[in-house]
């Protein structure tokens, strides 16, 4: 099955920077840093010109400015990038039968069977040109028999280019590349490989899979398969309805506003934690309220992609205020986040300092270790239990203590 597929990986080049350059042409060709603009800020993204100075994502802005004093610093704007991301999604949606939006700037497309009619490389080349023409954004793609090889190929194609890895040439293509080109080989795993003297994918290809599994456990087996160009992961149809939600019904219907507000804040806070735990962002917030007469009302609002409490909770509370009728008893309230995509860390880095991001990381760590309600806002203490469906496991969460899944 694997060798009959035609899988495309498309990636918008230095996406945040490219968006800013469309808005201000003076940034073209200059070293550009996107992120928090103060000395306590962090680099969320940077242009290729800035990278030549050794600057990279997640670097403190102060250090980046020292490395490249002439760099132009732009505060990130999630709203603008969300809009551009949606524009690209619309073009892809109109052009192909099956696509997966992996993150705000990254897509997988399954063109299996399309080669009988058009020729896959021709079709995706025309799609790439259409995206560039209609959105103005540079985009690269890799085409191969599976997701892993296509993603690695896109990295080799950049900037603003394309690569087709012909069937049967996956292993020789991957062979000379460094092992950290394999998706899921992060900094820690890469260091472990280097300590073992393994620098190139070729070395992994020549090792028995059992040895990789022995050294790196279950992950070792997966890394070995990816190194050998084996990946049967399907492209999963992207749907804007993909969501995570939670509801709370009351034993006794209530008009206690303070109680309602506390419970809604706790529900939203817990749900946002689930987003961050699953490395997801949401672009649509929905609030639902049911009164004692069973009349049910919902209202939703599109937002810039986010997984931050201080960005999402005010939207939830605003929707509650719009829907709440003070004279009626409330039976149930619910919160839902939809239009989910992968990613989180970079978008969070638009905030002006590390304090708030570090706070979220610390709170999330405590919740992972001691349970979802180990750390919470004082306003949410009213909520004694919060039911939710977890889309990242497809099942209700386990009882405390809660561990990272």
Automatic annotation (TrEMBL):
EC annotation from Swiss-Prot or TrEMBL: 2.7.7.7
GO cellular component term, pick one: cytosol
Transmembrane segments: none
Subcellular location(s) per record: Cytoplasm
Residues that coordinate or bind Mg(2+): 11, 105
Ranges of residues in domain UmuC: 7-186
GO molecular function: damaged DNA binding; DNA-directed DNA polymerase activity; magnesium ion binding
CDD domains membership: PolY_Pol_IV_kappa
Record SUPFAM superfamilies: DNA/RNA polymerases (SSF56672), Lesion bypass DNA polymerase (Y-family), little finger domain (SSF100879)
Reactions catalysed, as given in the entry: DNA(n) + a 2'-deoxyribonucleoside 5'-triphosphate = DNA(n+1) + diphosphate
Annotated Pfam families: IMS, IMS_C
Annotated site, Substrate discrimination, chain positions: 16
Keywords: Cytoplasm, DNA damage, DNA repair, DNA replication, DNA-binding, DNA-directed DNA polymerase, Magnesium, Metal-binding, Mutator protein, Nucleotidyltransferase, Transferase
CC cofactor note: Binds 2 magnesium ions per subunit.
Catalytic site: 106
Domain of life from the UniProt record: Bacteria
Cofactor: Mg(2+)
Entries under InterPro entries matching the protein: DNA/RNA_pol_sf (IPR043502), DNA_pol_Y-fam_lit_finger_sf (IPR036775), DNA_pol_Y-fam_little_finger (IPR017961), DNA_polymerase-Y (IPR050116), DNApol_IV (IPR022880), Rev_trsase/Diguanyl_cyclase (IPR043128), UmuC (IPR001126)
Quaternary structure and interacting proteins, as annotated: Monomer.
Function: Poorly processive, error-prone DNA polymerase involved in untargeted mutagenesis. Copies undamaged DNA at stalled replication forks, which arise in vivo from mismatched or misaligned primer ends. These misaligned primers can be extended by PolIV. Exhibits no 3'-5' exonuclease (proofreading) activity. May be involved in translesional synthesis, in conjunction with the beta clamp from PolIII.
Name of protein: DNA polymerase IV
Annotated organism of origin: Aequorivita sublithincola (strain DSM 14238 / LMG 21431 / ACAM 643 / 9-3)
Phylogenetic classification of the source organism: Bacteria, Pseudomonadati, Bacteroidota, Flavobacteriia, Flavobacteriales
Gene name per UniProt: dinB
